[in-house]
């Protein structure tokens, strides 16, 4: 008899371990995707996606917006979380209950039962956009995980070690997939490879990514 740990999970909804503290929940956001995408567009109408500059002066290829109590920003002064959108001078749009509920539920399925996000970074990748290997380390409490939702076009996620030199694994992420990393994996380097051109029925020629964080 072969032991199949995933025997009771439908193929399109498997939970796949990456390493200690990190899992992919395939399709976990697929059902809610239409509402999530509509909410992203509403958010963009208030706090528009923008290509920010790194402290080194490089313009990021991904366009970002945020919602929640805090938003992640970068400029010549550095990386940080702040309560106001620097473009509008107003607070970020509040985090919709639909967003926080989904993030809390999925974190708990991944083994992080008390996750309550106070920040959601909304990434919009267009063909040619990527995000280089980095650590998410501007948050205060590393006992809280990161919950990362993929919508629209597929993009290859890279998940590496706690040092930049460790060779990352490449994981193709599809519409509706969610990656959660925390615990021993919380400070692992990660990023996404250049988005290939394509057309997705729900997002057109782009991929959206939501990363839920506990900033403070
Ligand atoms: O787009 C992704 O899948 C990863 C995004 C990410 O790592 C981030 O926003 O910090
Ligand atoms: Fe990240």
UniProtKB/TrEMBL annotation:
GO molecular function: broad specificity oxidative DNA demethylase activity; ferrous iron binding; oxidative RNA demethylase activity
Cofactor(s) in the UniProt record: Fe(2+)
Record-level GO cellular component terms: cytoplasm
Co-factor binding comment: Binds 1 Fe(2+) ion per subunit.
Stretches assigned to the Fe2OG dioxygenase domain: 116-216
Sequence positions that bind substrate: 72, 79-81, 138, 164
UniProt GO BP: oxidative RNA demethylation
Source superkingdom: Bacteria
Amino-acid positions noted as binding 2-oxoglutarate in the UniProt annotation, renumbered to this chain: 123-125, 207-213
Chain positions recorded as Fe cation binding sites: 134, 136, 190
Keywords tagged on the record: Dioxygenase, Iron, Metal-binding, Oxidoreductase
Protein name: Alkylated DNA repair protein AlkB
Organism annotation: Marinobacter nitratireducens
């Amino acid at each position: 008899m072969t032991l199949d740990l995933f025997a009771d999970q439908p193929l399109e909804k498997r939970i796949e371990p990456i390493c200690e503290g990190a899992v992919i929940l395939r399709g976990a956001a697929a059902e809610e995707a239409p509402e999530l995408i509509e909410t992203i567009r509403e958010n963009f109408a208030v706090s528009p996606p923008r290509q920010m500059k790194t402290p080194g002066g490089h313009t990021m290829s991904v366009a970002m917006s945020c919602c929640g109590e805090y938003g992640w920003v970068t400029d010549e002064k550095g990386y940080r979380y702040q309560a106001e959108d620097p473009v509008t001078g107003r607070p970020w749009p509040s985090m919709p209950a639909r967003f926080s509920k989904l993030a809390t539920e999925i974190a708990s399925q991944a083994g992080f039962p008390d996750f309550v996000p106070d920040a959601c970074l909304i990434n919009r990748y267009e063909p040619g956009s990527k995000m280089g290997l980095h650590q998410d380390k501007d948050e205060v409490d590393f006992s809280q995980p990161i919950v990362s939702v993929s919508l629209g076009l597929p993009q290859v996620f890279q998940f590496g070690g706690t040092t930049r030199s460790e060779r990352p694994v490449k994981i193709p992420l599809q519409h509706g997939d969610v990656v959660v990393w925390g615990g021993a994996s919380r400070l692992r380097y990660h990023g996404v490879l250049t988005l290939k051109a394509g057309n997705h029925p729900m997002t057109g020629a782009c991929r959206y990514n939501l990363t839920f964080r506990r900033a403070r």
